[in-house]
Amino acid sequence: MELFMSEVFVSVSVAIRLIGSHGVNVPGYQFSRHGGFAAFSENGADVRETFSFSDITVLDLKLDTFLVGPPSKHEPQGWQALTVHFKEPQISTAIEKFLRDLATALTASFASRQRDPWNGNLVVDIDWSGVRLNRPPAAASIEPYAFTRITSKESRLLTAQQLESLGTSYLTEIFVEGMRAAQPKAKYSNWFIPIEELERLATSKFSSLFTPLFTAAEQERIVKESRLAGSQLDQLKRFLRSPTNTVQSRAEKLYAILIKIGLIEFEVLENKKVNVDLCMCKTLINTRNSLAHKGSKIDEDLLYNVLFPLSFIVVKYLSTG
Question: Has residue 170 got a pLDDT over 60?
Fold first, then answer.
């Protein structure tokens, strides 16, 4: 569908909701999660599902108002109406990007407060088929704007400060894709990528923590005794000097980096704390290696009580550091 590429719009109206990435469906039992957005009233006395914030900047866009209200009578249960008025008119592609980034950033911001990830991560879902772009008054009319769907879930309080602090990065998007995924294998793969990004810092920012596998004298001796020449000799030299070759194993390096950035322990569900240790790092890496070689068995306690919160913390560290 053509997206009104050259036109500008002063506001957008769309339905949003909080929905679980998956649920439980077995004979005799069915469970699913959903929720909505809410905010405290001005006096803080109660919580309301209809609220607005004025003169705020969200994801680098200046807004006149950010209004969340009850669902339209045309929307199924669980949807809420979102209307955003922009300070300056925006083209459709900028509005589409804003909505996608808003869904991603809000979903990520709720990650640390997930109560029951076994029954589905809460993610923000946008009803793309019902997006309405509002033209400036001189050309006042409302046009439908169709596209695809995402996913979101469970009641969360919003504040203007929270909206203004939202941000996205490629790691945030990868982490949220893990939250949206229904299969444990897909979740594990996505949530482990930030860990791998942290590991890469072992050759740069944290290289001083590790001992090269070969000393300079050993490198020189190996080169002399190899009797290689040309490209083979160059390949050998690169291997010997590679910063990835250290006395410490991969798990030992991950453990050292986590301790270096202050991750001695972290909190998971129901105020339970997980201590960071070498065994945990080995288990995380071994499970990832198993999945890379067509393994499918995943310890869901490891997935949700270790990798999920750890990945979220690492994303925050890498995004701000």
Answer: yes
